[in-house]
Amino acid sequence: MGRWIAALALGIALAVSTGWAWPTPAAARKVGPPKRVLLLHSLGPQFPPWNTIAINFREQLRSQSPHPIDLYEASLQSYRFGAAEEQKPFIDYLRSLFAERGLDLVIALGAPAARFFLLNRPEIFPGTPLLLAAADERTFSPTELGHNDTAVATRFDQLRQIEDILQLLPDTTEIAVVIGDSPLERFWVERLQHSFERFAGRVNFRWFNTLSADEMVQQVRELPAHSAIYYGTVRVDAQGVPQEGDSLFGRIREAAQAPIFSYIDNHFGQGIVGGPLLSSYEIGRRTAAVAGRILGGETPGDIKTPTVELSTPLYDWRELQRWKVSESRLSPGSIVQFREPTALERYRVQILAIAAAFLLQTLLIGWFLHEHRRRRIAETESLQLVNDLARMNRFATAGQLAASIAHEIRQPLSAIVTASTAGLNWLRRATPDLAEARLAMETAVEQSHRADDVIKGVGALFRNEAQERRRVDLNELVEQVLAITAQSRASHAIGLDADLTPDAPVVMGHPIQLQQVILNLVMNAVEAMRDSADPARMLRIQSAVRADGTALIRIRDTGPGVDPKVADNMFQPFFTTKPGGMGMGLSICKTIIEAHGGSLTATPNSPHGMDFQIVLPRERPRPAGGRRP
After folding, report:
1. Residue 168 maps to which CATH number?
2. pLDDT digits (tens, 9 = 90+) for 417-471
3. What is the pTM of this model?
4. Other CB atoms within 10 A of residue 529 CB
5. Dist. CA 488–CA 490, nearest whole Å
6. Which domain holds residue 112?
């Protein structure tokens, strides 16, 4: 027995850490002796969930305490054996260790450490403030606490946690309760078995407290379908082997064929589904806050801290997806973490940039289409306006040519009357001369055609019909214009030099519009020369086919011409050198020629006068036997 006690004392000595202290920012600013704190672990510093709570406690106390802290940590390893008499060597050791070092605060972490101090309070540090932390309120009575004691207690509602499992997985028929066989765990097995009787007939519970760690892993691997795992704590298995750290949980997680739940969040994010859980962070934070108040001088018995209960349900999105749990089954207000971002969330900036680019592109395309439509409408309206102006111009030109037109019609009509009278006279003779009569009739017919040509040419000037483009012989248009303007030229003693190519320049176009252009240019030339003092008044018209295959109509006069400085402005709307002119004729002519794919230019003639050149694309010659497209 003495050998066993000696070994136990050695284990206790090794379990007590050499005291350590850290300077906090507050301590660095305040001179004074450090506050000595003893933190007593239940079983050991690496047993979950107390190890996680201890980490949170240290971090919070470091940041909150205004004093330097000299923290000692010890472990109540003898608790796993359960015999009260075996704790006396540990009590003696602690008393001797701190006999010369006064403690400012003792913290019992977990229910075993809390029970140890409550049972031995008269013997160990009776005058030192005591803080119980992370002990369920069902493991001690408030009446056991004196004026120098206080607690940060916890309470988990195990019934609510089982109901949450069944709400998420309504087809569950079996729940495996993973729990160990230490004295504290035997206490909870008895409590849980009694509480879970209300679920009898609805779900079967399989208890692991009688199994070794290896048997637990094997049982988890063999669970039937529609099972769930409720992971409590395994500090010591049925063989008495302590289970420190997270190694057993990791083995169970790897072997599990069913979702895992727990009562506390120290394994959240490592494989449990979640639910209403105790918060290890909140327990550590509240413990550090109360410790700071005690070290600041407050009486522990006056500090009343609310019990740490189950938090808002917290779930791991990855586990919900793994076990196909619909989020619609979660309680209202539940928090889901570790949610993998959707493509929209992951590439939000890129998608928004692309969407913005598409939207901008769509707006630009819409704007371009709108502008294109507006342009087409404007072009149509402009073309209609040009046509109206051209028609008005034709009316004005026809008015100027009225005398010439009347003369051109009167001549063939007089010839028709003369020929017809002569023919009748030949027929009235006693012996009719049929040959002479026939000749007279032929002359009348010929003059009728001549009059008809003049009338057709004049009529074309007044038509306002929408015509399709067709083959137009430019020589014929020139001849028609020369016929119409013959009287005007003669009345002003203007000579004519017409050089029309035998290779008739044929183009595709509107004959009326092209005739109007030629007529306007000829009339401009006549008007320019009619008041000229130069007796050598000459109108020269030339048609030709240029080397590049285009058709050319060239109209030159010997009038006074224009100043070369203003020659470039001749085709601008409302530009005119005539006293009563509107300045639209040449602008209309240029618009018509450009609409036919050609060009109209004007250059001063040498030594005086103007030289107008009309260039139009010729109609492509059709292959033999081919059809016009």
Report:
1. 3.40.50.2300
2. 776 887 787 788 878 877 777 877 877 777 677 677 666 656 655 555 555 678 8
3. 0.58
4. 23
5. 5
6. 2-154
